[in-house]
Recover the amino acids of this structure.
């Protein structure tokens, strides 16, 4: 009888050990499955010489390639979440092309189109996005880089550091008479926080970096030169230091120029881009070296809608009067845009479409641990970024300027009151214009979307 009991106890013990082992293996597999995984890739998107340069409205064709333009992608996944972040060294990507790219890249990567975020670096030394360039180079390379990034997925840990950078400066220079010109304004709002996010593989080697900084890439100036401008110099510097591919996201750059010694908002050639880019590169390396802790982080995604109200439409009588006055005046810089707006207003009255309306866009927020990426399809003013970060409960809230669309400038209400280039562009967007408090709406609606993230920082 005692022998039988001992045998039963022995069997029970062995079964217990077996179950524990199975559970341990299952837990290990689950843990590995839940680890953050990323893959990176890059393609060259340099156009053929002879095409027009974007960014300045210039008709001068490109004659020289200083450095190749690139598109860089990071595919990120964890559990059920999959995300693709892409940065392209071009000036702007219009709404229709962005929608098409997100769909094509999402299909190629097995990622929902809503989870694809594409942002231009905003280099003003990139190509005009003609259909020939887009169809033969840009789209194929974006899809190719997506496929390649997904194939390189590997488990990683993530580290973050920030530094104060003087790569940019507010460009809304105020003259003694109160008018605003493009220049340098040392007392104007500027987001000086540069954020460097780094990923390490299981072997301890750096796999990829993301740099977030803010300034127009206009250091090369109006030259027939293809270049990534100052971000290219910075990226090359950090890649040489870390040995890893680096993705650059420009921030709320709508009113931010590169901080150049000439005191202007644009430079005069490659030497100015090297000057600004070298400063930015030192800042990026300093932040990278200051990362002390790498840890497992959680990926989450929130999608929703941002709904910005349009201002009331001008009366038909006022629109017709303004159009007659415009046609009787000598043509100016904004005559064409103003004329389109006024004729558009008259057409809206004819169609009976003058009631309440909104500019609506689909929004995707990506959170990795304490970092939240907030794409905005505008050239938003720096103060928008500063305010959003101050209100956010996430330590690293990063606005991605001109991301997932291009809809002109979005200044602050205070800036609108004194005018200037950004305000002229804001007013010239179309017959249906955003309200003057669009900055408050875009901040608050993104804060509401952030509340949908799972709890925990």
């Amino acid at each position: 009888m005692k022998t039988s009991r001992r045998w039963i106890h022995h069997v029970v013990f062995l079964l217990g050990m077996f179950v524990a082992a199975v559970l341990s293996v299952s837990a290990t597999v689950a843990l590995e499955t839940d680890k953050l995984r990323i893959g990176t890739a890059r393609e060259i998107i340099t156009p053929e010489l002879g095409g027009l340069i974007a960014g300045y409205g210039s008709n001068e064709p490109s004659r020289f390639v200083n450095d190749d333009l690139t598109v860089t992608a990071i595919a990120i996944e964890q559990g059920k979440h999959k995300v693709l972040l892409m940065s392209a060294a071009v000036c702007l990507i219009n709404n229709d092309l962005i929608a098409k790219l997100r769909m094509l890249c999402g299909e190629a990567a097995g990622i929902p189109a809503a989870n694809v975020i594409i942002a231009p670096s905003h280099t003003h030394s990139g190509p005009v996005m003609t259909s020939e360039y887009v169809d033969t180079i840009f789209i194929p390379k974006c899809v190719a880089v997506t496929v390649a990034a997904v194939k390189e997925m590997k488990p990683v840990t993530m580290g973050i550091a920030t530094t104060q950078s003087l790569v940019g400066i507010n460009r809304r220079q105020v003259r003694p008479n109160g008018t605003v010109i493009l220049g340098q304004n040392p007392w104007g709002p500027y987001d000086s926080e540069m954020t460097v996010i780094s990923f390490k593989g299981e072997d301890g080697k750096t796999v990829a970096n993301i740099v977030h900084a803010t300034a127009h890439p206009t250091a090369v100036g109006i030259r027939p030169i293809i270049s990534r401008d100052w971000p290219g110099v910075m990226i090359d510097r950090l890649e040489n230091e870390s040995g890893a591919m680096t993705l650059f996201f420009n921030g709320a750059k709508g009113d931010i120029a590169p901080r150049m010694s000439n005191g202007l908002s644009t430079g005069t050639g490659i030497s100015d881009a090297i000057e600004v880019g070298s400063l930015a590169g030192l800042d990026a390396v300093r932040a990278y070296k200051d990362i002390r802790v790498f840890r497992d982080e959680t990926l989450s995604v929130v999608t929703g809608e941002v709904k910005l109200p349009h201002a009331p439409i001008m009366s038909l009588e006022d629109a017709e009067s303004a159009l007659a006055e415009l046609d009787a005046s000598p043509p100016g810089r904004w005559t064409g845009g103003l004329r389109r707006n006024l004729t558009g207003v008259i057409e809206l009255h004819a169609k009976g479409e003058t009631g309440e309306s909104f500019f609506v866009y689909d929004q995707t927020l990506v959170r990795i641990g304490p970092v939240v990426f907030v794409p905005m399809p505008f050239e938003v003013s720096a103060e928008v970024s500063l305010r959003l970060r101050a209100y956010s409960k996430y330590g690293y809230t990063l606005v991605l300027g001109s991301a997932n669309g291009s809809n002109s400038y979005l200044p602050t209400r205070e800036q609108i009151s004194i005018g200037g280039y950004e305000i002229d562009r804001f007013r010239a967007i179309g017959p249906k214009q955003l309200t003057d408090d669009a900055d408050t709406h875009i901040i608050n609606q993104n804060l509401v979307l952030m509340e949908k993230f799972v709890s925990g920082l």
